[in-house]
Structures are given as structure tokens and as C-alpha cells.
Amino acid sequence: MSTTQSILDLIDQCQFSDEDPFEINQNLFPNLKEHLSIGLIKQLEAECYANWLNWAFEGESRVSVFYKYIQESIDNNTVPYFSHMSVDTKQQIHDYFDEIVNEEREHRLIFKKIIEKTNLAKRKNYRPDFFDPDSAEFKQYEHSRYAHVEMLFPLALAVIGESYLLSCFLLFYKQSSNPVKKQLFKHFLTEESQHIAHFLNLIKSGIYSDQAKDRLHHSFLQSIQDRLNFEKAAVNVIFSRLQQGSDNKLLHDQHLFNTVAYSGKLHESFNKLVLRRSYQFYHAVFPDVTEDTFLHLVENYHSDVLIGSE
User: Fold this and answer.
1) pTM of the predicted model over 0.90
2) Does any domain span residue 159?
3) Hey, is 133 helix, strand or coil?
């Protein structure tokens, strides 16, 4: 029996509720209890989990195409940062990408299986027929997204996305009370850790001009800020929805709302983990930057620069 099939069999043994699909058995946003009803908090948490599952499914679909694109670009010597590599090194990277792409495709199937055991499967934004790495239409769509941008930009997005995903897996693994689901996340942690190691070595091996480093600096910091908190983008969307017609003072100050929502040990630990994983990639390009300096850069980063353009 393949590893993927055994994981799919584990999923068959489990139920996945909308409000707490991974059975972490605690509220994501306990400090909101003083300001919002239990019903609204449950709605917020269910939306966060649904958004995360859909993001993970779409993300695994996308990187299955993108990583193949990187592999072919390095093979064809069209990525200048890696063109100095020897034939043997490029072959090794090619083989690593074969393994990673296969695993990401398997992860896509696992997320698809989980989603189809939840109400998310009924939502319009869940589109498994479109987000299919075997679909020519999907491949063409994905290629068009990065055909006119420098490779560094989507690569930075991808590796910070991997760091965020690994942090989520560790959060769920540590907090879940379900031993079967713990096995699921242990499987994810093992493979995603290997992916992180591969991309870390790849980025370390690159030779970058000062201009490329500047673009990487902005790409990394912008991507990190977007992923510092668990599903903050989804929380902001839901905040806007809850705000309409409400006289709740907290719902009239988004910064204050986020400060209250993301306080507490759970979110502090998650934030530190994302930063620690992300620093590895930043440090690979900027080895003279200490972690303390990096944390200061992230905290104070504000960009009005359009990054990713040729």
C-alpha cells in the first residue's frame, strides 16, 4: 500500500467538523469572548479553517505546476541565478524537484479528501476541476501568472508559503487531541520539512546581483508580513462583514480587533515559528543580517514598491 493511500485511509477514519476540523479543542480567538458572542466567534473560526483548507488545496495544486516550471527553467538554463551550476548539480536538483512535485500532488489529493468531508465542498470557491495540475487550462493559467515577472518574486512567495504551511502543520500536530489526525500532520511535517531543506539549499546556491537582492528583500518581507498570523487575510474579510450595521466598538477599529484576536500564547508561538522559518530563507541570501535585525525589518516594513516586475 502506498503512503498516500494509507493517509487517505486515515482520513476515512475521521470526521472533520467545520468549527474544529483538526480537533485542537480550543478557541482560535479566545480573547474575543469579552467582545463578541460565542456564535460569532464560532462563525469566525469556521471561516478561518475553511479559508485555510481551500488555500492549502489551491496552493498544493499551484506549486505542483510552479515547481515543475522552475525545474524546466533550470534545466533550460533560463534562470540566471542558477545558470552557473554544474551539470551534476542541475541533475540532482532536477531529481529533487521530481520528488517534491509528486509529493505536492499527493498533498493536493489529501486536502481534497479532507475538504470533501466538510461543508466547504459545497461552496462555490472550491473548484477542484479547475485547480487540477493535469489540466492544460490550469497550467496555462498558472504560467500566465508568472510569465511576465522575475522568477525571484513567485519563488519568494512559494518558500514563505511553505514556511507558513509547515508552521500550520506543527500547530495542528501539537494541539490536536485526535491521534489519527496527529499521524496525518506528522506525515505532512516530515515531507514539508524536506521541501524546506531543498529550497533553502537552492536559494543558498544562487548568485544574485545587488538589484536582484533588493527585489528579494522586498519580496521576502512583503510575503512574510502576509503570513505572520494564522489566516489574517480571512479575518480581515470577516471583520468587514461583521462591521456592517454593528455598534460594537471593537468592530469599528480593525487594528484593535486584530490585536485582541491575535493575542495569547497560541498566536505568539505561531508567529515566532513563521518568523524563525522565514529567517532561514532571508539569511540564505543575506548572511550578514542577524535574526534580531531581521525581526526589526519585518516589524517596520512598509512597501509602496511594486515588486516582481522585470
Assistant:
1) yes
2) yes
3) coil
Q: What is the DSSP string of 19-38?
A: S-TT---S-S-GGGGGTS-H
Residue 307 lies in a domain: no
What values do phi and psi take at 309, rounded to 5?
Answer: -80, 150
Contact by Cβ (8 Å): 260, 250: yes
308 dihedral zone (left: phi>0; alpha: psi -120 to 50; beta): left
Domain span at residue 89 reads 3-21+31-299
Nearest to 163 by CA among 103, 225, 215: 225
Sequence-separated (6 or more) residues with CB below 8 Å from residue 199:
158, 159, 162, 281
Q: Which three cell numbers stand for residue 222?
A: 512583503
Confidence of residue 308 (pLDDT cuts 50, 70, 90): very low
Quick one: cell of 45? 473560526
82 φ, ψ (degrees, to nearest 5): -120, 10
Q: What is the CATH number of the domain that holds 107?
A: 1.10.620
* Total domains, the chain: 1
- Kindly state the DSSP code that residue 292 receives in the 8-state scheme: H
Q: Is 306 helix (H, G, I), strand (E, B) or coil?
A: coil
* C-alpha count within 13 angstroms, C-beta hemisphere, residue 197: 7
Contact call for residues 192 and 163 (beta carbons, < 8 A): no
User: Does position 305 have pLDDT exceeding 70, yes or no?
Assistant: no
Domain-located, residue 115: yes
Backbone angles phi, psi at 149, to 5 degrees: -125, 160
Encode pLDDT of 96-139 as tens digits: 999 999 999 999 999 999 999 999 889 989 999 999 999 999 99
